[in-house]
Automatic annotation (TrEMBL):
Gene: LOC136091742
Organism of origin: Hydra vulgaris (Hydra)
Domain of life: Eukaryota
Protein name: Protein FAM200C-like
Length: 183
């Protein structure tokens, strides 16, 4: 049901009076002109559409930051590689391929602290997933003591279980053992 305002606007006499009073130069325009004006008005950028587009870009940039942090963790490289090499490389690629400067790459968080924090967040999530899997499966636990370089002793706990008809093995726990001097 149309509102009172819509009813008043849709009255032919009032619409014609508005056209004569406010848009004298458009009185002789055909219907096609007004349809184009209406379509352009409906497609215009509004504050809401700009905010939504900006939030979508921020979410994509954030997701890319997590994915790059995961790649850095898997590579075992220093976390500063994100800002020193990866970010400039992506920026150069975007600039070369698209021919324009991409602000999203410049604002992508890849600092040493950010990459470290993202890796920690993702590892917590992996730990939670592993614990949830172990709640529903039979598993075996194995402890192992190893010596690393510089005579550092490490205690590790592994868990083995069957996942999708395959054997899986994960590190459940790993810590450095402190030296104790015995007399």
């Amino acid at each position: 049901m149309p509102t009172m305002l819509e009813q008043r606007i849709n009255e032919p006499g009032r619409l014609e009076a508005h056209l004569k009073a406010k848009h004298k130069d458009q009185i002789n325009s055909n219907l096609n002109y007004f349809q184009i004006v209406k379509k352009n008005y409906e497609k215009r950028e509004t504050l809401k559409s700009l905010v939504i587009a900006h939030n979508i870009n921020i979410n994509r940039t954030l997701e890319a930051s997590y994915q790059i942090s995961l790649l850095i963790a898997k590579s075992g490289k220093n976390h500063t590689i994100g800002e020193q090499l990866i970010k400039p490389s992506i920026s150069t690629l975007v600039k070369t391929v698209s021919g324009k400067d991409d602000q999203d790459v410049k604002t992508m968080p890849l600092s040493n602290n950010t990459v470290s924090r993202r890796i920690d967040e993702m590892s917590k999530y992996v730990e939670i997933q592993l614990i949830e899997k172990l709640k529903t499966r039979l598993f075996l636990v194995q402890m192992d003591e190893s010596t690393l370089r510089d005579s550092e002793a490490v205690l590790s706990k592994y868990v083995r279980y069957i996942d999708n008809n395959d054997f899986a093995e994960e590190i459940l726990f790993c810590t450095s053992l402190k030296k104790q001097h015995y007399r």
